[in-house]
Known about the structure:
mainly alpha; 2 strands; two-stranded antiparallel ribbon; 9 helices; disordered N terminus; single chain; 45% helix; 195 residues
Amino acid sequence: MAGPTARTISVGLLIALVACKREPSAPASAAEPPAVPVPAAAPLQKAADEPARKPRGTCEDCRKHWCSSFEGVDLVAGCLKAPDPKLVPQSDPKFVADCAAVMRCAFEHACGYDPVRGPVHCYCGSRALDECKDSGPAADAPCVAEWQAATRSKTNIEVLLRFDQVQYPSGWAFHLLQCDRERCGATSPIGRCTP
Length: 195
């Protein structure tokens, strides 16, 4: 990422939206590669003005209220219209299309809304995170191609490492899915937002 502003906003997003969670696995041996810190779903931190910012009526209203101004970052526009040039300075004509494809796949397969596994479920399917890291996604993982395109890699370890990084379309999709899940998604009174 370029510049301290991008780093600060990314760290803010990660702190507020993501908690690194590893699922239980066998003890690591000296020959195994180090664990990949792939983020799992985590509740958003409550804003000080949360009681005054309750979602209103539609999913679009909810997204506008919660996901379009998170710490000065518009997750909706960054994924579905154009990323913030301070965070994604290079021109990438497929950025929005790849981010939207991840959102569409998660919506169609209802795989990005799990309170424990979150968006990782879309890429790993029924495999636990450690098994997914070591062996790749399960055959039932619905959105492998979309996450690979959005992370700009087909190498499993790179896909997992780039999952939530906002310099890739995957990062914007990841954080928007987290916002949808917590505020405007399957667990909210509004229901899942369409991509």
